[in-house]
Every structure is written in C-alpha cells, then in structure tokens.
Fold this protein.
Amino acid sequence: MNNVVYKDDEEYPELLRQMGKDAPKQLYFKGNWSLPLRARTSEFSERFTLKGSDASQKIQNARSDRSSSVLQKVNFSESLSPPQQAGEHVHTYDSEKLLSLQKFKEPSIFENCLAVIGSRRLTHYGKQAMERLVGEIAMNNITIVSGFMYGGDAIAHKTTIEAGGRTIAVMPCGIDKIHPEDQEDLYNEILENNGLIISEYEGDMGPALWTYPQRNRIVAGLSKALLVVEAGEKSGCLITANCAKKFNRKIFAVPGPITSSVSVGTNGLIKEGAEMVLSAKDVLEYYRSLDSYSKIVSFDHSKSPPCHSEAKPKNLRSFANAQDDNKNAQDDKGFEKKIIELLEREPMGVDEMSRNLEMPVSELGVKLSMIEMKGLIEMKGNKYYNK
Amino acid sequence: MLTKIPSVLYSGLEALPVDVEVNVAFRGLPGFEIVGLPSKSVDESRERVKAAIINSGMDFPAKKITINLAPADIPKQGSFYDLSIAVGILSAIMDFPIPEKSLFFGELSFDGSLRHTKGAFLLALFAKEHGFKNVFLPKDSANEASVFSSINVYPVERLSQLLAHLFNRQKIIKAKSRKSDDVDLSNSEFDMREVLGQEQAKRAMEITAAGGHNVIMVGSPGSGKTMLARALPGILPPLSEQESLETTKIYSVSGNIPPGASIIKNRSFRSPHHSTSLAGLVGGGTNPQPGEITLAHRGVLFLDEFNEFSRSILESLRQPLEDGVVTIARAKTRIKYPARFILVASANPCPCGYLDHPKKECVCTPREIKRYSKKISGPILDRIDLHIRVPIVDIDELSQDKRADRFLKSSELIREQVCKAREIQQKRFRDMPIHSNAEMRNKDIKKYCFLSKEVERVLKQAAIAFQLSARSYFKMIKIARTIADLEGIEIISVAHMAEALQYRQ
C-alpha cells in the first residue's frame, strides 16, 4: 500500500520542509498498515484524522482516479491478513477512512531520525562497527534512515530490524520498484517491522545516475544527524555528508585505518571537524540533548539496553560448555584465549596464524574448527575474525 | 597372386584383428584400389605406398592391385596400414614368404622411410594377447611397443631395410625389452617446497593425494592456485604397473606419446583451457576419440577458471566423476573410456578476482558475485570433497619469515606419507571395486568409517553450527577417514574430524 504526501501537507516531515528549495515536492511512501501498532495508536488517530482541510482535499482530488483501484488492493490484502488484525484498524472501507489509513500511522517515526550510511564495499571492520553502533542506537527509539543500497546501507537496515528498531529506506527509484532486486527479503522485513519505504519518485521508475545523489539529499534531510561508517574518497557517502552539512545536520564519523581506501572519506570528515564516534554513547548523547528526544523517550541511563552484540545471544556458545568436560580442557582454554587475542588485534588467515603460533596447519585446523563451532570466531572470505 | 597379412583395427581402446588381403591380378587394366570401408587416411595410403616403393629403388607393378581390409563392414582408420600394404604388394610381385605370426605396422613416407605412428603400444598388447611373435614397426615407435618380453619388436627405419631383413640379407636388430620399473619420480614441475606459504592449501593437497579426493581452490589471481595444482602430481604415489599400462594405452591410441618415448610412468596432469569443447573434454567426434578427462586417467585434471567453463561442459563431468568411466554413444558406435582422475578446480572469488584481496579493490556488486558463484551447479560441487580458500601471499615478507620454513615439507616426504595412506586404503578395499576413500559411497562410509559417540557428536554440532548439508556431512567423514589414514590410525578421532571441517564448503 502506498501513498503520497505533498510539501504543503500537514503530514510532510518537518525536517524535510526545513530544506527549503531542496525539499522534495512530494514523497511516496510504503508501509505495512495491517500490522498492530506498538504504541500511541490513539495519538496517531487524533493527529491524523482528515479534517477536510485544503491539503486533504487536494490529495483526494489527485487520487480520486486511482482510489477505486487502491480500495480494491486494500480489500485484497486485508482479506489475506488475520481477521483480528484487520479488525483492529479497519472497520469499514469508505474512502475517507481509507485515506486516513494511508497516512503515516506513526508520525513519531520521523521525529528522531539518524541517517546511517556506509560504503557499498563495507569491510568486515565496517560491518562490525555498524552492528555495534547501530544496534544500540536503534534500541533507543531512534529511527535509522538509510539508502537501501547493498553494503553499508543494507547492514544499517538489517541491524536496526534485528535490534527491534524502526528504519526508513529512501529509494533512488520509483516507489514500486525494489532496487537492488536481490534485497527483496530485506525490503519485506523493513515493511514487516513497522518501517517505511520512501521515494521521491512515482511508479516503477528505474534508478539513474542522478537519482542517487537526489536520494542522498533526502536521507540527509530527514535526519537530525548523520553517521558515516566507512566512505571512500569521492563516494556517495560524502555526497550525503555534504548535503548534511548544507542542511546543518550534525555529522558523526567512525574512524578507520588510514591504509583502507574505504576509510579515506570518514577519516577526512573527522579531520574537517565531524565528530568522531567511538561508541554508541557518542551519538546517543547528542540525541538526548535534543528537546524532541526527551519529549518522546524518557531515557533512563541506568536502564540502557545492553549493547547489540551481547543482546543477541549466540546459542552456539552453549557448545563451549559441552566441550569442557574434556581432559585437555585447560590447555584448550588457554589456546582458545591465545587465538582470540590474536584475532582481536587483527583478523588473520590460517596460514598466517600457523606461522604466528608456530604450529602446523593440520594441528591448528583442529583447534580452529572447535573454536569456530563454539561460535567464538568466524571465517569470512579467507580470514578468521573474532566474533 | 594373393597375399594375406594380419593387422589390427582400433575401436576405442580395443584392438580387433583385421586381415589385409592383397591381390595383384595379372589381367585387367593397371590400377590400385583399397576396399573394406577405408577412411580418407587409409585410402590415401595408395599414394604413399606407391611413392615409397618407387623411391626405395623398386618398380611399382603396372598391374591391377586390389587391397581388401577384412572384415569389410567395419570402417578403418589410420595411416598404419601403409606398411602391411607395401609388404603385401612386394611379397606378391617379388615372391618372398611373409614370416609367420608377424605384424607390420607403420606409416610410410614418400622417401621410403617410416614415420612415428600412433597406437604402437596397443599393437604390442594385441600381439601379446593373440600370440604373435614378431612386430615390425617404425623405429620411433619401437620403444613404446617393446614392453613385453614375449614378443620380438623390430624397429624399422626404411622400407628397403625391412626388405633386406625379409630376404635374410641383413637382419634388423631386435629392440631391447624395457623394464617398466625404472620410474622417474621427479616429474612434476614444482616441488611442494617451492610453494611459499599456503600451508593450509598444501595440507589440503596432501589429503587430496592421499584419499583421491577432488578439490576446489578459490583465490585471487596470482595466489598460487596453478602452482599448487601443478605440484600435485609430484606427491601422488607412482603409477602401479597396471595403471601405467592403462595410461599408456590411452596415450598411445590418441597419439600423445612422442617419438622415441616409452610407456607412461608418470601421473598425467591435464589442464584444458576453459574454451575446450565438450568433445575435447569428455571425448567424442564421429570416431569417438578420448578427451581430456580420459587423458587425465589416474592423474590430475586441472580445470583453471572453473566457472568460466560452459555449464553443459561442467555438467558432462558428472558421470565420469561418479563412475570413473565415460561412455560416448554415437549412432554407429558406443565407446567406453576410463576416466578416473583427481579433479582440481580453481576459481576466482568474484568476476574481477580481487574479493578479499589485501591490496586491490574488488569492483563487483554482490549480485555479480552471487551470479558468479552460482555458475557451478550443486551436483558438481557435491562431487568435490575439499573446498579451500587460497589467499594472496606476500612473497617478500614470506621469504624473510624464517618461521615459514619450519613446516616446509618436500614433495618426496609428502609422497611417502601419501603412499602409506594409500596402502592402508588398498587393504581396506581389497574386496571392493574401489581403491580410495574418495570413491566410497554412503553405504561404504557406514561400513568403513566407524565414528565414536564423541566424534559423531562433534560432527552433529558442526552440522548445526556450519549448516552442513547431508552431502557435506558424508564428505566430512570421508575427509576425516583420509586424515586418519595419513596418520596411520584406524579409528577416526575428534581431531581428525575437526580438521576435516576446515575443508568444508
């Protein structure tokens, strides 16, 4: 189900309006309304019942030719969804109700947005950094906005969903198109988890070279701040960062190794004055200082949710206990620690590790398999990483 | 005047008896005809024989000459009938007896000399099996045939020399029979010692060699995949006499034995280019010829750029990988060629090749990478036991790193261990039609790979943790079996299994 809001509409995100002439004239959006709302249903209905204003009239006119087909679509999807869910929101299918349904069901999704972007060629380090930071941030009721591209964007969306947060994907193509196509699963997950898909463009228009930077300006515009995790020189991420600067958004950047080509951009941003992010706290403190944040979330520091990586229990770790009745448990433990320490410093391939530990690969392989089975380390590409 | 000379006909790797019947008629217009379904190469024999006889200083009879190659309903191939035909004609007009139990074989040159001709080994084998005593063949092909002590091999240089022998004027000296045990093992291009770094890949090669497993290496260009593959034949056990004869047969028929060379004693290493046609790889043609997989029989088939091979070609490898033979069926013939080889495949991790490269950037999108890896079908990957990643090696750094030398093993040392492991397997499978761990079917795995409770538990855990498929599950057991064999241990331990897990897909 999709709909559109125009710049003059009441529902148009305030932050976008502040962009002035850069603000998109209209926003198409998709959300899954059949899901139960988590909170503030009443507030939502209060704020978003149509009052016959000029704006709504305009929408109605614009949409009248399509409303019948939309209505049919709704009927269809509602009939597919469980009756109790459908009954919760939709009682009758008159067009007025329908239009109200098509509005953002939860305007608060726009209130505390953080744009999180990363390189398409995100390294393992970037992925780890993103999971660590974004998971915790998203848990604190901050909406993560990103561009739905593979690599950094996709991981930002994914991490948010895993952490139970809400996310907005801004598409560089028409609202009806999924781009990149192979991320259809993620697309559906965003919708199923109270997220939004947004685009400036109608229909199934394909992405073009120029639509990416246009999309980036919306990503920056929707958010109060921008977090950059890995960006190459002259990358799309830096275009977003430039937009953010233009709209006076706060910019956070995750530092990276100076040898990495995908850290040139982020390190450059830090040099230019972006705030360096070492932990999620750095970003959260900024949001806590904002009025809009304290209004929505009564943030209690002592009850802060645990870090994302620990919040997701690795059930594989239970294997660790199963193995311990071994006689050589003590030795293994010591070796395990040694390997983990080695990998904490730097991810390494088996061959390199074998040279470092002066141990033949046949022996080392045995240990690595066991430790990997416990879920303490993982193999990605041709290197072992600490989990 | 009629003469009859025995000869052969090759069908696949088999030799069938043929009679070359030469009739020199004293009536009728002069002419020279060959009947009995000769192919172009057999038919053209007329011109070669005529020129060779004339250039050997004799007169070619101006008579009606007819050659029949019996049985007349099977097509005849090859240029080796030249000598039989020439001897037959000369015998008819010069009236000398053809020695009994003798075979004449070889292609004639216009000047009367004999050229190296393919198939000499098969001829010798045929002679031995059918009770022939003497074999006359080109000097360059003599080494190939002089393997069996029960037959006399006469290396012939020129047609006139053969005539002198047949007229008892000057005898040709018999070729010395060669013993097949003087095996030269320093055959492979690289020694494992020369491969710097790549400890895990080298270990994988050791396991591959010991168990006859197939292996796939994934790594960026320049990481040493080809070098590793080329070093593999050097750590394989030497060919047994039986295997050596099998291989020589194939090479002889396909004309892959160079002039003057003897039987094949080294494991073959074949690396066809990825543009190879289906017929080139699995064998084929109107008269089905052995393909690369058959030439790699008992050796190594190295398919570089594995996913650049066309899909239909890769799929055609399924039957040979499973059964060790390939059957080529044509409208007129159906030929079976042996094809029991170790498949070593190598592939780049992505289309540009630089995924996970420490210095170069990969420019591929996730979609491209997905598509690239999907090019190899599941059934083919299922038949490959070991999967390894071959990382880029920093040569400068490694050559200074003395720690790297500690575990360097020469090919010779590895080969000794491999041989021991193979011996264990031979004992294990003495009542079975299989020879190595890699050939075990699932029911054999249950029979020969006893897993203790603890090992089974580890494997089951791994199956969950690493999401192993049922196929992978059995592959792990096979690899663990080979690792245990390498250590000479009968019972598979947790350590063996854990190491095997390193080579999972």
Q: What stands out?
A: Chain A has a mean pLDDT of 77.
